[in-house]
Write a structure and sequence with these properties.
4 helices; 22 strands; 16-stranded antiparallel beta sheet; about 325 residues
Length: about 325
């Protein structure tokens, strides 16, 4: 390519870039967020020439301040859009100071750092929360604060690839309803839990060993004494069957003829860990912020498969397979 053509191409790129920049408009003001008292947002956008829809492009910042009788709640969400898709690092930060809810007055912080590529989770995600609560009572001496109740801090990390979890997963103090509040392990490139997973509760330590998503060993020990509470360890015949299945030497139908069935469960279905109360919290306002193709609220509920509160969750959080003898 000669210098003349290169010059024309270069000038064309400048004109196109300049034209796109000139077409960007800025919104700054009250933002619909589902709150009674809405927050404010600032972002740039352009109008699609075909659909006439507004398309977010560039930096986005959302800021919400709520005040109660004795404290406040502050939330900031920031990140970047690439043609209406979340792209790059997004941060969600919530800070409370004696903010009043129906359950009391709460202080603490909640943060999520999420990495996206073109609307899909890609890269490290990290969630953390620390908080405490107390009550405010009226007495003859006036308003009196009770002592704080300190709640366990929470921390979750996982790495995504194109919307699915891959690599190391770590939970610290998972939601209160979970029996095991700490867990760690690996998910392979096929989305299958693999290697050694360790789950810890106040009383027990559960170890699950998996090979290519297939459970090969299950042991629960007393945390204090180390004594085995329950276990399920494969005998030589079962080990060989699982090895042959992984190698493609035996089919599901052949296993059924041997009175063995396979249950394939997601990590959440199996109760091993649950991201609902960490990555997918309502406070992060996915429904209103948009731009995440892996977790979203459909406009037509009859058109899409839905789960929690009508949301579509297309992410895979890891799978495992359990072999069970049919008696």
């Amino acid at each position: 390519m000669n210098k003349f053509l290169l010059s024309i191409l270069y000038m064309s790129l400048i004109i196109i870039t300049h034209s796109d920049a000139q077409s960007l408009k800025t919104f700054s003001g009250i933002y619909e967020d589902g709150e009674v008292q809405s927050g404010k947002a600032t972002y740039t956008y352009y109008e699609d020439s075909k659909t006439r829809e507004y398309v977010k492009q560039g930096p986005f910042r959302y800021h919400l301040i709520l005040k109660s009788d004795a404290g406040n709640y502050v939330e900031i969400i920031s990140g970047n859009y690439l043609h209406n898709k979340k792209n790059g690092i997004w941060t969600y930060a919530i800070n409370e100071l004696d903010y009043h809810t129906t359950d009391g007055y709460f202080s603490g912080s909640m943060t999520l750092t999420a990495t996206y590529v073109n609307g899909l989770p890609n890269g490290l995600w990290s969630y953390s929360r620390t908080y405490k609560g107390r009550d405010r009572l009226y007495s003859l001496l006036g308003w009196v604060w009770t002592a704080y109740k300190i709640f366990p801090s929470e921390h979750v990390t996982a790495t995504f690839k194109n919307g699915d979890i891959i690599g190391t997963v770590a939970f610290h103090n998972s939601p209160e309803y979970a029996e095991y509040n700490n867990s760690s392990g690996q998910v392979n490139a096929r989305g299958l839990m693999t290697g050694q997973w360790i789950f810890t509760s106040d009383d027990n330590i559960k170890t699950i060993v998996l090979k290519g998503g297939i459970v090969t060993e299950f042991i629960v020990r007393s945390k204090s004494s180390g004594a085995i509470v329950s276990k399920d360890i494969d005998d030589n015949k079962m080990i060989q069957l699982k090895t042959d299945f992984l190698a493609g030497k035996i089919s599901v139908e052949q296993l059924k003829q041997l009175n063995i069935k396979i249950d394939t469960l997601s990590a959440i279905q199996s109760g091993q860990y649950d991201f609902t109360m960490s990555f997918n919290r309502d406070e992060f306002k996915y429904k209103y912020i948009g731009g995440d193709d892996s977790y979203y609220y459909p406009k037509d509920d009859n058109r899409e498969p839905v789960d929690k509160d009508g949301w579509v969750d297309k992410r895979y959080y890891g799978w495992l397979m359990v072999f069970t003898k049919i008696h």
